[in-house]
Structures are given as structure tokens and as C-alpha cells.
Amino acid sequence: MLPKLVITDIDGVWTDGGMYYTAEGDVMKRFSVKDGWGVIFLHKLDIPVAIMTGENSQIVQKRADKLKISHCYIGVKDKVAQAEEVCRELGITLDEVAFIGDDLNDLPLLRKVGFSASPCNTPDYVKQEVKYVTVAHGGHGAFREFVEKILQDNGALQSVIASCLEC
Question: In this predicted model, what pLDDT tens digit does every residue of 8-19 receive, in sequence order?
């Protein structure tokens, strides 16, 4: 069954986990455009996407705005509580949620959702607790691979790809 909500962490999933600083002290993040297609695929199926990150970064909000992700939560200390709140708003349960995260602070939510995943460059103690480990590293298409896995397992990937080709 397709999830009714897909939640994603950012640093280490959509990025390589690095923080890039300019000489002036500005922080930059590198995002893979491949992951944007994962969001587009989910939008095609009317499956909402939620970003939940512990970082308090307007860079993440700008990426969410570009991809038309309306559920973007930055500076999140308790991802389970935030996910439960979003689920209440949507009238769903955590069993109907898919979540991809990559580190210790993601484990409580990874343990509670219906489908969990992490990028392959995640610590082993996280990988051993998820249902799927991507081949792609964080920041190199791991989110898109996660979405494609969900859609493939539910027989929806080819139709979504076909609908994107028609645009």
C-alpha cells in the first residue's frame, strides 16, 4: 500500500552531510537535483512530503519552496512528536507514513513508521533498524531511490514515469 505521507530528513539524506562555509561565514548546502524528481513523483500521486530537520536553516526552506513542499519543519528537536502532529492534521497514523533518515536523532521515528529507510552511508546501528537501505549515498539521489522503491513495490512507478514524460 502506498504511504499517505512521506517524511524525509535533509542533512545526510538530501545532502552529503557536509557543511560548506564561505570566507564570510555563510553556510551552503549541496542538494542533488535527482532528489527533486522523487518529490515530483509523489506530487503526481497526491502524496504529501514533509521535511523534518534538526538544523535551523533557511536554505532548507528555500529548497522546500522551490519543490512546492508545504510541510517543512526546521529546527525540529522531537521528530516523533512533529510527525504525530502532521499525522493528526492529515487524519492518518504513523503506520501509513514512510520516512528516510540517516542518524541517531532519526531512530525514534524510523522505529515507528510503516516503512523506514536510510542511505547506505548511514551508521550501521541505524541501517540495521530500517526496512530498506539505499544503494545511493546521502546527497547523491538517496531520496529519489527511496521514493522509486516505494512506487515500484506498489506497482506505481511506471505510470508515474509515463505521466512525467507527457508533461
Answer: 999 999 999 888
pTM, rounded to two decimals: 0.95
Distance in angstroms (rounded) separating the CA atoms of residues 15 and 27: 13
Does 11 count as an annotated binding residue? yes
In DSSP terms, 50 is beta-bridged to 7, 71
113 CB-near residues (< 8 Å, 6+ apart): 7, 83, 94, 95, 97, 98, 99
- Among 68, 41, 43, CA closest to 149: 41
* N- to C-terminal Cα separation, the chain: 26
9 is in an annotated binding site: yes
95 assigned to a ligand binding site: no
Give residues with Cβ within 8 angstroms of 103, minimum separation 6.
9, 12, 122, 123, 126
